[in-house]
Amino acid sequence: MKQIVKRAFSLLLAFLVLLPSASLAADHKPYSLVADEDRSATPEGIHHYLLVCIDHWNVQPQDLKTKMGYHTDGLMLVTVDEYSRRVMITSFIRDMLIVRPDGEWGRINNLFYLNGQDEKAVDALIYTINRHFDLNIEKYIMVDFSSVERIIDAVGGVDITITAREARYLQNYSISASSTTPAISGAGTYHFSGHAAVIYMRIRKVATATGATQDVGRTERDRIVMSTIADSLKDITYGDAIDLLDVIMENTIMTNMTGDDYLSAVLLALDMKGTEVEGIRMPVDDSYYLDSEAGMATQWIDPEVNREALHTFLYGTSFAVID
Description:
Layout: H1 2-23, E1 46-54, H2 63-66, E2 74-81, E3 86-92, E4 97-99, E5 105-107, H3 111-114, H4 119-133, E6 139-144, H5 145-154, E7 158-162, H6 164-172, E8 180-181, E9 188-192, H7 194-201, H8 214-232, H9 238-250, E10 254-255, H10 259-272, E11 277-282, E12 288-293, E13 296-301, H11 303-315
Helix pairs in contact: 5-7, 9-10
């Protein structure tokens, strides 16, 4: 009898060990992508700006030509609807499994590296996001961790409420005690400098207050910081906005935005200041599962479910003005 029980237990254990590998199958479920000619038009009054953050500090534009291995670990779409007066942030998790422009499978954060780390590489990234999510993103700004740090410092830092576990993580990370006010001592609300805020945004191994972990937790923290920055600028003057624009432009590694584009964005932001920032994550809950590609952990997504969720979020209250 003991042998039978032992054998049954061994079979059960083997089944449990093998079960995850079934979800890590090399043969991915096919994705339903949107062809260029079938892409939905962006509603009038909607403006999209893709913020791309590469996973290094102090990157110089020339480094992109001479040093390989930069990944776009931060992908965030800022959408402004000037008619319904909404400001929205869409975060894309970095390990999302996508179909590359060459038809191969891969992680979304590898596209920039694999396509040459130049303007064409960003175009490939935008093209991929557009056809997976039925968008028409055109404008982008690329920064790195140091850029984000300096921009946050330029707005005077951010107030962030952290849990006890996040506090312990930041203490163990050994950020300077002077990088928050007061120095972190436990759960609570602190004023974060740019450097401390970037480290907070990079946390993966500790759950957020809502229980989100890993890259899902990272995207939640990104949205928290962005929303807090927006809230802190609700009383910004035109002069201060121009000064902040200078900081952003000085810390931009690559962009296709012209000076007029920047000025238009600033004027739009001034008109929308004080607007509460709304946020969403791609993929949404219950629309993805763990997968594998080239030995790397990825997240298989359901593009149709996520496209519908994203369009409902972005355009659900938008309307066109007809003269």
